[in-house]
Amino acid sequence: MQTKRTEVAVIGAGTAGMSAYRAARAGGKQALLIESGPYGTTCARVGCMPSKLLIAAAEAAHAVRAAPAFGVHPGPLRIDGKEVMARVRSERDRFVGFVLEGIEQIPAEDKLRGHARFLAPGRLQLDEHTIIEADSVVIATGSTPIVPEEWRRGGPRVITSDQVFDWTDLPDSVAVVGTGVIGLELGQALHRLGVRVTLFARGGSVVQLSDPMVREVAARALADELDIRFQTEIAALEADSAGEQVALTSRDAAGNLRTEHFSYVLAAIGRGPNVGALGLELAQLALDRHGIPLYDKHTMQCGSSAVFIAGDADNERPVLPEAADQGRIAGDNAARFPHTRPGLRRTPLAIAFSEPQIAIVGASYKELCVSHGGRFAIGQVSFENQGRSRVMLQNHGMLRVYGEFGSGRFLGAELAGPRAEHLGHLLAWACQAKLTVAAMLDMPFYHPVVEEGVRTALRDLAHHLSKQPEQVCQDCTPGA
Question: Is residue 99 a contact partner of residue 41, using CB atoms and an 8 Å limit?
Fold first, then answer.
């Protein structure tokens, strides 16, 4: 057993870990980057990039089917599943290659392989070969898809998104359990590529939408295209005798049972932080009820300790931009410990690349019902009759924008509609700049563009802000 001494030890070489390592080195400190699995980020290997490749193929197929509505009649549509997946895997590998090039630039003596666990504060053990003594530690261990133990009776055909992008062909059928970002994006993409897809949701939620009106409109638009079973839970999963299908038994809200067979069952009910095997009890850290260290969201410091946490491991905002920001803050403060300082935390922005696209910007409806109950107003627009949306035949969805009584400041938005990935950025920038609704309406709007829908919603919001505050959270009961 060898012993290594370092100033900063970073556990995990994903997006957050690499950002933390670079920040610590930029702070003039010696740093070690520890990884137990394959190099390459979740985003590049099994997340945002390969999923967008699959979605791009699905959009191409959907465009062919939608063309006759414009008077354009292409020939018969043929989808070659092997070609689709070959491109997904090839481009995925290319993106992973870029990440690996960055890893290769890190000095060999700064990279260690093995599973790390705490022996004491500032003391780690890697497998059975190395003891690391560090002045400070950054936990950036990422997350893993959740698969309930009882579902494993379905055998190897009960999968997570991690396995989808290694397919060499498209399957005949897939049951997708979960209507969060991963389940919705992959489920709709596979459906548009000719796979028989059924989506199951225990409740009525779509992605993280909390605004009841936006959620209802989004669910209705998606259900017009997809077989979505809301208020339905999985009662049992069993592999068939040949191991080629999974028998899925579901139970609806009325208690009715239904058994169907699928080539695969995709578990998309969330990801869990990889913190359970770190020996955190020996790090003397205060933990929340999920076993995650309590930390300062502005410094990423765990209590007053020399341990910092970043990325999916802290379970706050599990998206790549947040992982990069948190890693940078954690690494910087690990290098300057004990003289920590707040880092830049940007306006929350979450996007689902479904159709309609979904975006949540700034403070959500549910958050505002807690923080600003009775002190915020709502403006809205439907995209059904919005000019540019109708031109594109993408006229479905709704945008709801929130503003603060008194100050008139723009607080956030939830939307499902066309070009939401772009509208979301526009609104996030306005939110981070702390613009008022009046200032936003002073900005230029071209014609005809989808952004005119934003202006309509802001005008509606300005109208409501000019009135006396009203109670807007009648439906903000637990679980709403």
Answer: yes
Region(s) of the chain under CATH 3.50.50.60: 2-37+114-145+272-336, 149-269
Mean pLDDT by 10 residues, the chain (480 residues): 96 97 98 93 88 97 97 96 97 92 94 97 96 98 95 93 95 97 97 98 93 97 97 95 91 96 96 95 95 97 98 94 97 98 97 97 98 96 96 96 98 98 98 98 97 98 88 48
Check residue 480 and give its pLDDT.
Answer: 36
What is the C-alpha radius of gyration for the chain, rounded to an integer number of angstroms?
24
CATH T-level fold of 2-37+114-145+272-336: FAD/NAD(P)-binding domain (3.50.50)
Query: What pLDDT score was predicted for residue 479?
Result: 38
* pLDDT score of 156: 94
- pLDDT on residue 476: 53
What is residue 475's predicted lDDT score, i.e. its pLDDT? 52
Best CA proximity match to 455, nearest among 465, 440, 467, 436? 440
Long-range Cβ contacts of 37-42 (<8 Å, 24+ apart)? 39/13, 39/99, 39/100, 39/103, 40/96, 40/99, 40/100, 41/14, 41/15, 41/99, 41/320, 42/14, 42/15, 42/142, 42/143, 42/312
- The CA angle 223-62-416, to the nearest 5 degrees, is 45
Tokens 């923080």 locate to 371
- Which residue type does 383 have? F
Output the six-digit token pair for 77.
Answer: 């549509």
pLDDT confidence of residue 471: 56
- Distance between CA atoms of residues 452 and 57, nearest Å: 29
Q: Which residues pair with 349 in a beta bridge?
A: 361
Please give the single-letter amino acid code of residue 241.
S
The string of DSSP codes covering 242-265 is: TSS-EEEEEE-TT--EEEEEESEE
Burial of 471 (0-12, 13-18, 19+ CB in 10 A): exposed
Give me the pLDDT at residue 171, please.
Answer: 98
349-465 CATH, one of 1.50.10.20, 3.30.450.90, 3.40.50.300, 3.30.390.30: 3.30.390.30
- Find, among 62, 67, 116, 60, the residue nearest to 279 by Cα: 116
d(CA 480, CA 205): 10
CATH 1.10.10.10 is held by the domain 149-269: no
Cα end-to-end span (Å), the chain: 54
